[in-house]
Write a structure and sequence with these properties.
alpha+beta; 8 helices; two-stranded antiparallel ribbon
Length: 347
């Protein structure tokens, strides 16, 4: 996997020389900017959404992507990750063939396809050129890679990132480097592949019309402390998956924006936590709370009190741990401060 086509005309491409990576190679491209048939949002069964229409997911593929992600629901595979991956692989073009022979919308190599071949539409054929077969197969492969990645929380990268790296370069490379291969591997193509898909998955989650509707606020009135992706042995993943705010126990914690509470209660090493699904399909997480005052299923507005800060779970002192995720599960984190700034906040 990992071959993306060249995009021309109004779309600027970031060009890298393709390198065969065992299962494929990759060319880096920017997000498409074309009308794919009606702007809108397609709701996912788990609550996430895919942005369709101009610059988004072609509407005809959105149900296939969401179904493929839903089949891996327990392992937390966001549909926007699969969508951004297809965008990167082929620009959603089911007819593209790469220089090294990767085929179709999901860019399966002929040697890889037999392991994941799926007759998604029940027509009696398992065809990598048919999106109705290729997208379910992509979902199955990514789900399998995600399960492998979750067995190694101490490796470099989140489970979703390691799964993407495995899709691009083969999971043996992930094992070799104990995580996402570094920039020095294959001229940085796998590393960049992962970074671009993680970033573009946010753009393909829900409507993209600037700041989301409703009030947006900071979760607490305090400066940001430990930054996103700081490395260290204090975290099971080997790096910090969010940003910390140093506040004393009992500080009111507020929902950053409008949404629905999907989790409120014990969260293992996160201690007491609240997770909110926002209207654009992203999720915010508030961890180490002394208590959660919100309840799963509550509809909240930005600024609503959802709990009190604390020091529960795996902590060295009281603070609020805050994450933005593309889905509700661990491993789908993205950089939280750019997301908050996109909502018009200054931080």
């Amino acid at each position: 996997m990992g071959i993306s086509r060249w995009l021309t005309a109004a779309v600027a491409a970031v060009v890298m020389t393709p390198v065969a990576l065992g299962v494929g190679a990759v060319l880096l491209v920017t997000t498409l900017d074309e009308d794919n048939g009606g702007a809108g949002t397609v709701a996912h069964a788990a609550g996430a959404g895919l942005r369709t229409g101009k610059g988004g997911v072609p509407a005809r593929y959105a149900p296939l992507i969401m179904k493929a992600a839903a089949s891996c629901k327990e392992d937390g595979l966001p549909p926007a990750i699969l969508a951004a991956q297809l965008q990167q692989e082929s620009g959603f073009d089911p007819s593209v063939e790469s220089e090294v022979g990767a085929q179709g919308i999901a860019q399966f190599m002929p040697t890889t396809w037999p392991e994941w071949a799926t007759d998604g539409n029940g027509d009696g054929r398992e065809d990598p050129w048919d999106p109705e077969d290729a997208i379910p197969a992509q979902g199955e492969m990514m789900c399998s890679l995600l399960r492998k990645a979750k067995k190694h929380p101490d490796w470099n990268g989140s489970p979703v990132e390691m799964a993407l790296a495995g899709y691009n370069a083969g999971f043996r490379r992930v094992e070799q480097y104990k995580g996402v291969p570094p920039r020095s591997f294959a001229r940085g193509q796998t590393y960049n592949y992962v970074q671009i898909i993680m970033a573009n998955s946010v753009k393909l989650t829900g409507p993209d019309a600037g700041p989301s509707g409703g009030k947006w606020v900071l979760p607490v009135e305090a400066p940001a402390g430990t930054p996103y992706r700081q490395r260290g042995s204090a975290w099971s993943s080997g790096y910090h998956t969010g940003v910390d705010f140093a506040v004393p126990v009992g500080t009111p914690v507020r929902a950053v924006g409008p949404g629905t509470v999907v989790t409120a209660g014990p969260g293992g090493s996160y201690g007491n936590q609240v997770i909110i699904r926002h209207d654009d399909g992203t999720h915010s997480q508030y961890a180490h709370l002394s208590s959660a005052t919100a309840t799963a299923g509550d509809r909240v507005q930005g600024g609503a009190r959802i709990g009190l800060s604390g020091a529960t779970g795996n902590v060295t002192g009281p603070h609020l741990h805050f994450e933005i995720r593309t889905g509700p599960a661990y491993g789908s984190d993205i950089s939280p401060l750019p997301y908050l700034r996109k909502q018009g906040l200054t931080i």
